[in-house]
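User: I'll paste a sequence; please echo it back and then give the predicted structure.

Assistant: Echoing your sequence first, then the prediction.
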Amino acid sequence: MMLKTSGESCRKIVPGIYNFPRSKFSTKQSPITSHSYIDDDFLSLNKEEIASHVQDLGPYPSYSNILNQHHFYQNEVLMKYLRKDPHPVSLRQLAGFGKKLSKQKIVHSANFVRLELPIRLAMRIRDLQTLPFGIANNFHLGQIYESYYHLFNAFRKIPPINTLEDNDRFCETLSSLLDDHIFNLSHLMMGALEVSILTNFPREELDKFMSTMIRSRISRRVIVEEHLSMTENYRSLPNSSKPPDYIGELFQTCKASDNFQEVGDLIKNSMLEFYPNKENMPDLEIEGDVDTSFPFMVPHLHYLFGEILRNSYEAVINTHKEKTSRKLPPIKITIIDSKKHVLFRISDQGGGMTHDKLSDVWSFGKNSEFARRSLANFHRIPGLQLYSNLEVTAAGSSVVKTLENDNFLEQTSLGNISPKTKKSTLDSLIIRPHEYKLGLGLPMCKIYADYWNGNLLMNSLEGYGSDTCLTLSKLGFHSNVIQLDRA
């Protein structure tokens, strides 16, 4: 999968292009630098500077602790897991399982996660292995491949969980792995942009690949975070029972209008350098069923609202900032609370767009120049983790962190394993400064909306503005839908 031709190797070892940090167990340490090929000074690199890296040339990536001449002889281990089927899980099953917890339920849940994740990871690893050579060889997708293989190795080696103490150690591992692999979403998005630059992968295939990878990522994280939440809940309230409408620890009751206002304020703050007069920025005018509340995952809801509002704020400011020094036209949000869905229409007077541009906003495939600018912006986003915390041995085996004490929860706060306090790439993307445009917000949002049995559409009246329509399912009504099987 990751073999490189000589030309490809030369391209990847130019300083600042693929000169990324190795694991702390490696013999060399490379500085973290941005991709020079997206900067104007790329051609200024002299031959002596390039030649100094010739010793790194080889058939396998020099940054890799996994991809070596022995790697694919080990693929039989992976194929064994590919012969297993992932177990579909619905929200109703999660809700029923978590309504009244017991020691045995916690142990069963831990073993389900322990056995299920290697199967799901093996499927995605195989997808990466079977990509066309020039795509599979991409640095960012290579980072994801290594990350997934580390996870696969880590989980398949975890012994059966028989006691609450075993589960405590297991939860520590899960919590650590959630943090260690947070960078994957960023690399997946950057990989899509680099593939766009290469222009040798059909847009439809790229969109299908990205959809599969992101859905699978959501599914795995929900399964893991649900187990962490149940463990936290059992430790704090071991005998509590849940109400009839309970659908899982991860889902909080969200009042739509309050969440729009909260996210809208974050987006305004991110645009102050672009348009310093916050008082004149568009107001949110919320109408319809303004008291609507529904259960949802807050990070996902905020990301959906954030990307839609960011587009509307930017369009309105760009269209009207030179025309008036007064308050800019508002962004109108209509909330409709139906029996099984909540519908949102976000209307702006941002000038709209042509229909040919409208069809392009839903795809991860971008033109080369746009993709280069987006890649440059990724490296400038404050607080966005782009590099791995993975620890491996000199032989390339995954290191799984554990505490010597049998009960780590007695040493640390329960909040350390709570999904509510976990790092999130989505949080960093929501609050990124306005100038760091990525161009992938709407295709990402469409996948997140669809994953939760919703939809995202946009209509545009060129010369006036746009209507973005977001539909989200009330998950309690769809809890019998097999939702977490997007393996």
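Residues 1-44, 402-415 have pLDDT under 50 and may be disordered. The chain is about 45% helix and 10% strand.
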